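User: Hey, my collaborator sent me this sequence without any context and asked if I could get a structure. I don't really work with proteins. Can you help?
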Amino acid sequence: MSIAASTLQEGGHADVQSSTSRPVYFLSHGGPNVMYDTSHPAHAHLQKIGREITASGVRTGHGNDTNKLQAVVVFSAHWQAREPGTIEINVAEKADLIYDFYGFPAHFYAEKFPNVGSEKVAARVKGLLEEAGIRTRAVKRGLDHGVWASFKTAFDPDRNPLNVPIVQVSLFRAEDAARHYELGRALSPLRDEGIQIIASGQAVHNLRDMMFSMGGDDDDGTGLPYTNSFDAALNDAIVASSSPSFPSASPDQAPKHEGDPPATARRKGKMLDLLKRADLRQAHPTLEHLLPIYVGAGASRDNDSVERIFKYKEGGLSWAMFRFGKAVG
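Assistant: No problem. I've predicted the 3D structure and written it out in structure-token form, which is a compact way to encode the shape of the chain:
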């Protein structure tokens, strides 16, 4: 593939790198209607992100193609492991689609998204997690809409096919953000192996309030008060704290995260502080849509440029999306 990298930064261009390390993406995936609602701002930006990911081309094993795409490892808000303390890894050679939504027109439940799995990549994930002391279990499972609906938008099979294996990995069963951060950190080496890590959730996710606000003044890109406040705090925790100029805490208050370099420690500390906010349970009545971003941030590195590459708010939803590291071009 020779698709040019897209304009993604707010008011700028995609930051492209030539190193062998792939970035990590956090996508806000919304509902399955994102595939059809071409007028929604998130639709076009998911397509841009998809083109950015495929811009490097696919790894063939010949020549100098170490930065090219070999596979995708994806986490979704809609898969939490059944057993406490365990991560499940999808080893299906071909995953059916899970239509895990209700009340949509019939054609939504006939959607298809071509995909293949990879035993080799699944085994690599298993090995890295077990090296980190994380218990795993192999399962055969379909892809939930947090993966396939956003992927069909980003990687249209006709216009921008993915053409590499997809291995979905579960979240932990528990709402333990620190544990999910460590999950991401354990898989960070995949970035140097042509494997794209994608975390799919929602920056703010209160479906009840979104339904009540549909068509109202808060459904026009402004968001509800807690949507605005939590979205700003999330951006501060992820992007602002990654800057060397970000004010450091006093030594006795500085977060102590053994093994984390300075920027990574700041980011981790600020992200864990989000869980103490008064607006947390308004923004996320349950945390499954927030936890994937902890996985993505955990896979980040101290020298990563960290950017919010899309923002849009409507009622009880924020569609903010982030990239950890430069795009590969």
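In plain terms: The radius of gyration is 19 Å. You can pass these tokens on to your collaborator as they are.
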